Write the structure tokens for this entry.
Amino acid sequence: MTDTPQVPPQVPPQVPPPVAAASLPVAAIQTIGLTKVYRGVVALADLDLRIEKGDAFGFIGPNGAGKSTTIKILSTLVRPSGGRAEVCGVDVTQRPDAVKPLIGYMPDVLGIYDDMLVQEYLEFFAAAYRMRGLTRAKKIDEVLELVDLTGKRMEPVKGLSRGMGQRLGLARCLLHDPAVLLLDEPAAGLDPRARIEFKELIQELRRQGKTIVISSHILSEIGEMCNTIGIIERGKLLFSGPITEAKRRLGQEQGRVVCVRVTEEGDDGRSTTALLDLFRGHPDVAAQREGGRGEVLIRLRDGVVDTSFLARDVVRAGLHLIHLAETEMSLEDVFMHVTKGQVA
Ligand SMILES: Nc1ncnc2c1ncn2[C@@H]1O[C@H](COP(=O)(O)OP(=O)(O)OP(=O)(O)O)[C@@H](O)[C@H]1O
Ligand SMILES: [Mg+2]
């Protein structure tokens, strides 16, 4: 199963501080000063991460940021060069055999088991988890049902579409009922219906009390599935915490933004120009720009509470107001603000 060679530590191990402060409960995942260097390439630089039990944690960052590396270390497949990582308080380097039952790892690529039938594939992994007899048969039925692949049981794995392959990968990592799921880009390649079903599946798994780590580039999906996020770039953690907190902080930093739309007068964009002219230099407006589709986005100055002047001025100017609402920060806004677009 190891898809990355284990390399000896290249950075002197640090003296780790105590795992968890006495006042804090044991985290589902905790890394302290986690470092990984691949032949001179620093993939992870001193990563301190804490994910609480029951969280759905979205792990986001540009290509090469170190997401898969972190997930592989937590899955015991890659040895860190320094620092430490724990799953439910168990050290992944010192006690990998105790960590394995706790985690379900779904890699970004499924691997090649082409000659097997779906049923055989799951039998193979269930046997690896030492499941036997009726327990094994029942569990396989259960996971196939959960990922909606019961009808494909006797099909060869190679006959599955990409999305079905992803679902089979998820079924595989649910066989031993792990407490923590580590899913590396699990929704890549799923069709829109499969994505919605996948989202529901994640919600069901959360209801079962599992901790779920999902790396993905599809931020809208992370926004819908996860309650917390970690943003990583060039092996460094730039933000970690609740999504609401990330948006709130960005909102505080950037100020409130109001989206205004008026009826179009032909395609010459005259209405947006008129809107921009209307609020240019207004004492309560810090900045404004066109937002596409005839919208103008108006950033208010700090401390402006009463926004009624916007509607009043638009109407007074003879423009036909059709939409005026404060915009909510999106995860894309947060991502673009926090990361610099640096690729390792
Ligand atoms: N087996 C390896 N050997 C050498 N370098 C590696 C290896 N695996 C990863 N790296 C390097 O480590 C860095 C982090 O890679 P990683 O795969 O963890 O990024 P990622 O965040 O998962 O990116 P992506 O979004 O593209 O999946 C990159 O610079 C990558 O080239
Ligand atoms: Mg990756």
User: Anything to note?
Assistant: The radius of gyration is 24 Å.
